[in-house]
């Protein structure tokens, strides 16, 4: 029978390539001749497909204005495709780097733009948290920017279906070490509070216009620094001490000492009210 998450190949028209990532090529497309979509063609052998198809049913139910909408999957032919909301300006990381000049001006306008990005991501994450859904790979590269600067969180929960030890094991070369808290580095213990740590790093990425966290340090050196209780420095300029305090709260050693996303949202809002 027809399933709500299943997208017919006949309704899908593939257009230009948008980029490529861990799972394969992403192309612009039209669905039903009118809806702009992004189509992720899953490279064969990179995903445990049966489990992922099950999961996609859950993922299509997660809907929020700051989450990239998953329309469904097209599984009639290989490769299977993920069909998602089209985000005109691509990844937040490339957006930050492309607009670095404008976004590193020292001005209240720039601060406002950056805090707005932080608030939008937080809002999407608070929704995931309230549904007990763990992202596991929150970072600027996994957020997307749409028209009028809307920022949305993408790729939530996907890493669980990746078949690649280099990516999924904390010792692997592709593991996002720089976004991982101590309990993930030592025990692979993911939770909404490990997402909160990653969120603090993402705030730092936004304030530095997309710098690589811990810069030139090797992964091993980063792990050593975290072990010794060192953290990232306050970004310059445009990051107030209050916003840096918030990042640092996300980097508390013990997960239970980090704020929840609901709490972070409240803090960001109260800081905004003070700005006016
Ligand atoms: P992967 O998850 O396989 O690593 P990504 O999700 O990072 O792949 O996608 C690779 C690139 O494709 C992104 O950097 C972005 O430029 C583009 N892209 C991905 N999803 C979308 C989307 N929904 N809308 C527009 N562009 C997208």
Explain this structure to me?
Strands 1-2-3-5-4 form a five-stranded antiparallel sheet, covered by helices on one side. It has a two-stranded antiparallel sheet with strand order 6-7. Helix content is 39%, strand content 15%. The protein is an alpha+beta fold and 276 residues long. The termini are far apart. Helix 4 packs antiparallel against helix 7 (192-207), helix 4 packs antiparallel against helix 10 and helix 7 (192-207) packs antiparallel against helix 9 (241-250). Bound molecules: adenosine-5'-diphosphate. Adenosine-5'-diphosphate (ADP) binds next to strand 1 and strand 5.
Q: Secondary-structure element order, as H and E?
A: EEEHEEHHHEEHHHHHH
Structural class, from helix and strand content? alpha+beta
Tally of helical runs? 10
Low-confidence residue ranges: none
**DSSP strand tally:** 7
């Amino acid at each position: 029978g027809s399933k709500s998450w299943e997208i017919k190949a006949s309704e899908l028209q593939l257009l230009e390539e948008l980029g490529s990532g861990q799972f394969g090529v992403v192309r612009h497309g039209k669905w039903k001749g009118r809806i702009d979509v992004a189509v992720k063609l899953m490279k064969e052998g990179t995903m445990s497909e049966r489990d992922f198809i099950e999961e996609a049913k859950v993922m299509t139910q997660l809907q929020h204005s700051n989450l990239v909408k998953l329309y469904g999957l097209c599984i009639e032919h290989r490769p299977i495709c993920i069909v998602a909301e089209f985000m005109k300006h691509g990844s937040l990381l490339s957006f930050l780097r492309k607009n670095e000049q404008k976004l590193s001006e020292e001005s209240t306008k720039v601060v406002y733009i950056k805090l707005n990005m932080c608030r939008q991501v937080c809002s999407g994450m608070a929704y995931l948290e309230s549904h007990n859904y763990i992202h596991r790979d929150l970072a600027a590269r996994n957020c997307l920017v749409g028209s009028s600067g809307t920022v949305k969180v993408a790729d939530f929960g996907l890493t669980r279906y990746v078949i690649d030890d280099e990516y999924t094991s904390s010792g692997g070369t592709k593991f996002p070490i720089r976004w991982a808290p101590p309990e993930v580095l030592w025990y692979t213990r993911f939770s909404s509070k490990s997402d909160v740590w990653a969120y603090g790093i993402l705030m730092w990425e936004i304030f530095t216009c997309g710098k690589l966290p811990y810069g030139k340090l090797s992964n091993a050196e980063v792990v050593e620094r975290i072990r010794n209780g060192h953290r990232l420095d306050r970004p310059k300029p445009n990051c107030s001490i209050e916003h840096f305090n918030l990042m640092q709260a996300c980097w508390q050693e013990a997960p239970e000492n980090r704020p929840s996303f609901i709490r972070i949202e409240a803090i960001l809002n109260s800081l905004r009210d003070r700005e006016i």
